[in-house]
Structures are given as structure tokens and as C-alpha cells.
Amino acid sequence: MKKVYLFLAVFFISFLLISCNEQTIKKHKEIITKENPTVADILLDNTNADILLLNGIVYKNAVDIDWVNEEDLTLGKEVAVIKKQTKDAEKFTDGVATKLTVGTKIYESIGNGNIYIAVVKGKEMRYLGLIEG
Predict the structure, then answer these.
(1) Is the whole-model pTM more than 0.85?
(2) Which of 48, 74, 51, 47 is nearest to 61 (CA)?
(3) Where does residue 96 rank: exposed (0-12), middle (13-18), buried (19+ CB within 10 A)?
């Protein structure tokens, strides 16, 4: 009986050592330290993306995201005005967009702090923050 317990103990310890190898630890570290996508990341993937940058977070037009459009949101206070339009990632700073025109007002949404609302020609357009984790 003692041999069975000894065998199980050795098996368990071996299993722990094998499963906690360096590759597994690196993989877990990558998951934990994953950062939010940058403007460059988004534009590299889709040069025609409709995005804006506010408070260091990239926001993507959510017209095709059903759950965002189904959210019960109310227009909150104005938080920004688009000050520049560009598709050059290096020229992006807060208040810059790829498609929204200069002067477009951006509002917070009451109901979901990860969604901003741009008002274009009297129509509300929702933008979802691309936040990892």
C-alpha cells in the first residue's frame, strides 16, 4: 500500500513539474500582460477602419455589433470634439479619427462606460472601446 502512495506522490509531482514548464509560464504571462490594441494595430489589420482615439483608448464604430446597438443608452455629457482626421497611425492623438469629420462632437453614454456616442448630422453613432482583459 505504501508503494502505491509513493507511486502516486511521484506521479503527481512529476505532473506538476511538467505542466509548469517555461513555455507554459510564458503563455500565462502573455495572457496576463496583453495590452489594448493600438491605432497602428487596427489600421494594419484594416486600413479602412472607422476609429477614434480618446484617453489613449481606440474606439471602433459599432454599427455592425448587434449587442452594442441593442444597449439601452442615453446621451450623456460632451467629452470631446474631433480635432483632426487621418489614417496615419503616427499622427493619432486624443481627439483624432479616421472617418469622423473635424468638429464632430463625442458624448459619453449613460448605461455603458465603454461606449461613446458621436453625433453626425443629428444621428447617433456608437463607438465601442477596444479594451483587452
Answers:
(1) no
(2) 51
(3) buried
